[in-house]
């Protein structure tokens, strides 16, 4: 049997995925993260390894730790947009 294309995130990654979701969807949390990322990640209970991977923008490490790939992408996009380093084109 072949390896599944998608694996459901493990329970141990719940805090990480909640943090990524908040970065994607919660403007107030995203603003707190941009002001003080460590404090914002502390609100979510992230451990040091998850926090370091998120700060580094290390997609592979985040996914390996159980982050949902869509949330990694969207959180990174929303942070980039908030920092003014990315934009969405409508077409």
Q: Count the helices. How many?
A: 6
Taken as a percent bin, the fraction of beta residues is under 5%
Low-confidence stretches: none
Based on helices, strands and strand pairing, what is the structural class?
A: mainly alpha
Helix-strand pattern? HHHHHH
What's the count of strands? Answer: 0
* Distance separating the two termini: 41 Å
* Mass-distribution shape: globular
- Overall mean confidence score, pLDDT: 90
Major beta-sheet overview: none
- Measured as a percent range, the helix fraction is 55-70%
Cα radius of gyration in angstroms: 14 Å
Structural commentary:
With 91 residues, this protein is mostly helical. The protein is built from 6 helices and no strands. It has helices at 14-25, 27-35, 37-43, 48-56, 59-64, 69-83. Helix 1 packs across helix 2 (27-35) and helix 2 (27-35) packs across helix 3 (37-43).
């Amino acid at each position: 049997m072949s390896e599944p294309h998608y694996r459901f995130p493990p329970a141990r990654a719940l805090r990480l995925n909640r943090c990524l979701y908040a970065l994607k969807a919660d403007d107030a949390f995203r603003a707190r993260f941009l002001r003080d990322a460590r404090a914002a990640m502390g609100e979510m209970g992230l451990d040091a390894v998850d926090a370091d991977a998120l700060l580094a923008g290390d997609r592979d490490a985040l996914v390996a730790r159980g982050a949902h790939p869509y949330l990694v992408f969207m959180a990174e996009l929303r942070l980039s947009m908030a920092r003014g380093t990315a934009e969405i084109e409508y077409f």
